[in-house]
């Protein structure tokens, strides 16, 4: 790959670039980047239906996940597996300048399964932090490569390489005590089913029957693996779907609400503010393009 100094875009926000700046891959819109400079907003517990990479450049930002709280310093890279419940905060009197990279769940799943099948050693924890300099150097290079092509297959291949590099990076801290529940086949299948039927009420009994488990045991296992009940998990997925439709776009919020599985805009407003600390309108108006 090319040298990181030859970066095409300002993936790292520079002075004067306030607020949120947003970019998505034309060939794969679910792969997106958000850059924020001197940001000081706290986010209550929420999840993303994608792999989230928090690349911190300056200041401090705290991440709480699986009962572990860690304050990212400049240069730290935090990785959250798809659908991992977490919250973030900026310590009082501080700020953070960071870049968030969202990689679609299917790419994360396929890459991790490929690594498993080859016997490769990699981080299976749903939340970890790394300070590997080589990874930080390669991130803008991968993003530049993705931005330069409109070929979906090439974008997916580069994104898979990026996920593999991230998973293989040495970890400085990891939340792994519930690792087995996160990777349990029944929990994986349930997450897939709930994501695929986001506009419908979760048929918990049907999902439990499909994975061959007693419903009470299934719900307990699912909560161990995700931190949420199936119903709460689906609400969180709906909020994340709304986020993906709002950021960087001017889609009418009433359309966003219906497309995300909410009954109306006020229903969306209530859940969105609870998860992100912003109203959808305020969140939507804060974005400019990278």
Secondary-structure content class: alpha+beta
How many domains?
2
The named CATH superfamily of the largest domain: Jelly Rolls
Portion in helices: 40-55%
Strand order of the largest sheet: 11-10-7-4-9-2-1-12
Say what the CATH topology of the largest domain is.
Answer: Jelly Rolls
The name of the CATH architecture of the largest domain is Sandwich
Quick structural overview:
The protein has 290 residues and is of the alpha+beta class.
Task: Tell me what you see in this structure.
This protein is of the alpha+beta class and 290 residues long. The chain has 2 domains: 4-175, Jelly Rolls (Sandwich); 179-289, Arc Repressor Mutant, subunit A (Orthogonal Bundle). The protein has 11 helices and 12 strands. It has helices spanning 105-117, 133-147, 152-168, 179-182, 185-196, 204-210, 215-226, 230-246, 253-259, 265-276, 280-284, and strands at residues 19-25, 28-39, 43-46, 50-59, 61-65, 68-72, 77-80, 86-89, 96-104, 127-130, 173-175, 287-289. The strands form 2 sheets. Strands 11-10-7-4-9-2-1-12 form an 8-stranded mixed β-sheet. It has a 4-stranded antiparallel β-sheet with strand order 3-8-5-6. Helix 8 (230-246) packs antiparallel against helix 9 and helix 8 packs across helix 10.
